[in-house]
Amino acid sequence: MGSLESEDALAHALTQNRAWATHTASTQPAFFSTLATGQHPPILWLGCSDSRVPETTITGLAPGQIFVHRNIANILPPTDLNSAAVIEYAVAHVGVRHVVVCGHTSCGGCIAALGNERIGVIDAWLLPLRKLRAELGKGWEGVGKEERVQRLVEANVKAGVRTLRENPNVVKAVAERGVTVHGLVYDIKTGVLSELEVEDEEGEGVRKEAFGVQ
Questions:
Q1: pTM recorded for the entire structure
Q2: What is the rounded average pLDDT of the residues 2-27?
Q3: H/E stretch holding 6
Q4: Active site members
Q5: Closest CA to 148 of 194, 110, 108, 109
Q6: Angle CA(150)–CA(152)–CA(153) in degrees, nearest 5?
Q7: Rounded to the nearest 5 degrees, what angle is found at the Cα of 180, between the Cα atoms of 178 and 185?
Q8: Angle CA 17–20–26, to nearest 5
Q9: Each residue of 70-108: pLDDT tens digit?
Q10: Span 31-47, mean pLDDT?
Q11: Can you tell me the distance from the alpha carbon of 203 to that of 183, in angstroms, rounded to the nearest whole number?
Q12: Under a CB-based contact definition with an 8 Å cutoff, are residues 73 and 50 in contact?
């Protein structure tokens, strides 16, 4: 992988874009005209802003196949209007069939939460991670830093899955269209995605009753 440090990174990106667009148009003549008619991605991807985890690249998919929302450390607070709007639009209007929250190894947000240092505005955003850290910390005696980061990464993904399962739009889509919710972790060292098993403590039936979904 070439480094962009020795040249104008944006100029390089624009040049690469022209080359990609030209190549794609020549090999797939209907690609851009088809995309221009609308989007019907089957997957909603809720991931981290980290530059090492580009969803379409690591899944081998193309533009138009994943609806995306990314933020620092893929945190999904139930009261966050930004992610809530994306989830509602993707599930209720775009019609995605899979909702994915994806974390990754060596996550800077998790490392910062473990360090418990003041950074700036992001400190408030990381509060859910710090809370998870406190909950996990009771069993961390003798556990190394890398393993602590990994456990926090996984706990954060699982928390995101539980938040999604409680989202009324997701509850409705699960009941009516069989939409599925997934928690993934991407290993930066290997390039491999792994799915986590997240226990459903409450149960779909309870949520359907609570939200009045038949």
A1: 0.92
A2: 88
A3: none
A4: 48, 50, 52, 104, 107
A5: 110
A6: 65
A7: 170
A8: 140
A9: 999 999 999 999 999 999 999 999 999 999 999 999 999
A10: 98
A11: 17
A12: no
